[in-house]
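Field log, afternoon session.

UNIT: design team B
ACTIVITY: writing a sequence onto a fixed backbone
BACKBONE:
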C-alpha cells in the first residue's frame, strides 16, 4: 500500500517552491522565479500551474521558445476544457506572435476561445495579434468582446482607441 503521507509531503514541498516562485514573479523577478518553478515541477511533474507560470516568466525574459515548451507541457497535462488549458493556449499564442508565427498564434488564440468562450484574456491576446498583422477591424471586434466580458479592461479601451485613431488618420 502506498503511503498517503508521502503524497501530502510532495504537495507541500512543491507548493512551497511554487509559492516562493509566485512571490518572485509578483515583484517581477522572473529570472529568480524560474528555478523555484523548476524545483516545484521536479517534485511534482504534473504541476500544471508551475509550467504555466514558468512559461510566463520565460516569456517576460523574451525566451519565447522556452515559454512555448512550458505552455505546451501544460496543455498536455491539463483537462481539455479547463481554464488553465485555455490560458496555456492563449499565452502560447502570444509567445508565437512574438516569434512572428502569426498562423500558429491565431490557431492557439482561437483554441483558447473555443475552450473558454468568455475568456477576455484570449480575446485581448487575439486583438493584439490582429493588430500586429494589421487586421484592424478584427482587432476592434476582439477588443469589443473583451469589454463586453470585462468592462474594466483598461488596455482593451486603450488599444481600441489607438486603432480607431489610426483608421481615422487613414481616412484624411
Amino acid at each position: 500500500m502506498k503511503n498517503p503521507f508521502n503524497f501530502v509531503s510532495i504537495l507541500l514541498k512543491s507548493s512551497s517552491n511554487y509559492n516562493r516562485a509566485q512571490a518572485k514573479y509578483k515583484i517581477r523577478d522572473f529570472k529568480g522565479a524560474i528555478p523555484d518553478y523548476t524545483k516545484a515541477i521536479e517534485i511534482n511533474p504534473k504541476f500544471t500551474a508551475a509550467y504555466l507560470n514558468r512559461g510566463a516568466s520565460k516569456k517576460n525574459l523574451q525566451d519565447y521558445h522556452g515559454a512555448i515548451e512550458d505552455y505546451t507541457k501544460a496543455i498536455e497535462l491539463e483537462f481539455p476544457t479547463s481554464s488553465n488549458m485555455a490560458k496555456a493556449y492563449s499565452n502560447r499564442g502570444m509567445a508565437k506572435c512574438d516569434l512572428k508565427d502569426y498562423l500558429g498564434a491565431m490557431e492557439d488564440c482561437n483554441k483558447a476561445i473555443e475552450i473558454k468562450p468568455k475568456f477576455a484574456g484570449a480575446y485581448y491576446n487575439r486583438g493584439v495579434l490582429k493588430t500586429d498583422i494589421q487586421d484592424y477591424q478584427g482587432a476592434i471586434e476582439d477588443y469589443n468582446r473583451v469589454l463586453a466580458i470585462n468592462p474594466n479592461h483598461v488596455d482593451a479601451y486603450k488599444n481600441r482607441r489607438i486603432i480607431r485613431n489610426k483608421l481615422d488618420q487613414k481616412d484624411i
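LOG NOTE: The radius of gyration is 18 Å.
NEXT ACTIVITY: expression trials, pending approval
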